[in-house]
Amino acid sequence: MNRKEFLKLVGAGAAFAVTVTCLGGCTNDHGDIFPDDIGLNPDPITGAFLTIDVSNEASSALKNNGGYLIKNKIVVARDLSGNYVAATVRCSHEPRDKIIFRNNEFYCREHSARFNTSGRGLNSKGSSNLKVYKTSLNGNILSVIA
What's the rounded Cα separation, in Å, for the pair 95 and 65? Predict the structure, then answer.
């Protein structure tokens, strides 16, 4: 092998290494997709990611303002004004499924990132906004939609 062939071979290997590194840039050290690929598939007819019967005992946490539940990797809450709000359970600071609802805001139990009910970050750990979803109440059926 002469020097020209060697440089071509090394150059191709370096290009491959750079490409693999760049393509892997969308994940963290744990292999999680960042920040919000949690595999939600909307219903093709209603567009809802999730429906909840708020009259059902399983959703009793939503009967009180400030209550919340987590279902299908979505935090569904009733804010202090009685409105239903929903957000991803995956934090935008680091992709950990640790978001809950407390003190009328979304809160990450992993590293204390805080977000308002519109998903806007409220502290340095919440500098990247949180993915929120629209909600719609029809009778006793609460729908969470994109």
Answer: 28
CA–CA separation, 32 and 38 (whole Å): 10
Place of tokens 């020097």: 3
pTM reported for the whole predicted model: 0.72
Rg (CA), the chain: 21
Whether 89 and 99 have beta carbons less than 8 Å apart is answered as yes
What tens digit of pLDDT does each residue of 2-58 get?
666 655 665 655 444 444 344 333 333 333 333 345 566 777 777 888 999 999 999
Q: Which CATH superfamily is domain 38-145 in?
A: Rieske [2Fe-2S] iron-sulphur domain (2.102.10.10)
**Structural domain boundaries in the chain:** 1-31, 38-145
Collect all residues with Cβ–Cβ distance below 8 Å to 84 and sequence separation of at least 6.
Answer: 62, 76, 77, 78, 135, 137, 142
